[in-house]
Amino acid sequence: MGQSLAKNYLHIVFSTKLRAPLIHPPFDNELYSYLGGVCKNMECQPIKIGGHTDHVHILCMLSKKITLMKLIEELKSHSSKWIKTKDKSLENFYWQDGYGAFSVTPSEVDKVIAYIANQNEHHKKLTFQDEYRAFLKRYNVEFDEKYVWE
After folding, report:
1. What's this model's pTM, rounded to 2 decimal places?
2. d(Cα 11, Cα 117) in Å, to the nearest integer?
């Protein structure tokens, strides 16, 4: 086989530090666009990015040239530095240390896109913590509650 071929859809989720509700208009959509630009720069084609006041969801393709850890590092470090320059109220903006990354089968991509697009409505009924626990359970990820939150 002469070619290296890969198509890995990823659903990445991470929160602001201590789930601080810092992601608001007009900077929320700018932040999502900025995160998309970081993905593009890392050759990880963004598909849908959105979130709520205290977290983001990123659906993208993982490049075959970089590791997931490197992508997360770039997303968090660049966007955190950038958003702090947007407004004085954001000068203490930080992302949590951890993240969730879940593989998405091609047949589920449209569902994940719709899920990300509907975050504000979704979180009228469910907290980020409950949403994240549901992801961990759905993907059979073992976790210790005392280490998930910061």
Report:
1. 0.94
2. 13
What letter would DSSP give residue 89?
G
**How far is the C-alpha of 27 from the C-alpha of 22, rounded, in Å?**
9
Structure tokens at 52: 């709520």
Helices 68-84 and 27-41: crossing angle in degrees, nearest 10, is 140
The pLDDT tens digits for 59-85 are 999 999 999 999 999 999 999 999 999
List, edge to edge, every strand of the sheet that includes 9-15. Answer: 46-52, 55-61, 9-15, 100-104
CA 26 – CA 92 distance, rounded (Å): 17
Q: What is the secondary structure of 103-136 as a DSSP string?
A: EE-GGGHHHHHHHHHTHHHHTTT--HHHHHHHHH
- Identify each DSSP E strand in the chain by its residue range: 9-15, 46-52, 55-61, 100-104
Residue type present at position 116: I
**pLDDT tens string 72-125:** 999 999 999 999 999 999 999 999 999 999 999 999 999 999 999 999 898 899
Is the bond preceding 46 in cis, omega lying within 30 degrees of 0? no
